[in-house]
Amino acid sequence: MLFKSEGKLVDATIVHYRPFEFGRDIDLNNKKFELKFTLDELKPDFIILADSFIDQCRIDDLEQGFIDIPDLEELKYPDFFSLLNDSPKLATYLMTDYLFADLFDHLFKTTKEAKIIINKIHTLDYKNPEFIMTGETFQHETF
After folding, report:
1. pLDDT at 108
2. What is the structure's pLDDT at 18?
3. Which residues pair with 120 in a beta bridge?
4. Gap between the Cα atoms of 12 and 18, Å rounded
5. Which pLDDT does position 22 carry in this prediction?
6. Measured in whole angstroms, how far is the alpha carbon of residue 46 from the centre of its chain?
7. pLDDT < 50: residue spans in the chain
8. Looking at residue 142, what is its pLDDT?
9. Dist. CA 56–CA 63, nearest whole Å
10. CA–CA gap between residue 136 and residue 125 (Å, rounded)
11. What pLDDT does residue 95 have?
């Protein structure tokens, strides 16, 4: 995994995310970040969580009588690996809109005292086997 802030490599052990009000626009001397990680770095824990999420979507859709994520239903609620291979844009959408906390908890679980806080995701692209995420951070001391 590689984490860059404003183009400079940063030790990922000082990076975490803002769990409350994630993605809310704030101006705290925000900096752009780029995060690169591989599919292997997600195995097995995140994959299990993503599969569980997809399965829970299927259950919820049946119980509530309407479909929250129509593309998942159209694809018949595939496992995460199949989704990633067959519909990478939908897989990355799920990761950024529904599973971002699980993703960050998985990638940054060995954090020391957080000094750089991820506040917003702009993009997440997948080109087997690598993910590239961009977004905004701020320094912990300013919040």
Report:
1. 87
2. 77
3. 136
4. 15
5. 64
6. 10
7. 142-143
8. 45
9. 10
10. 16
11. 97
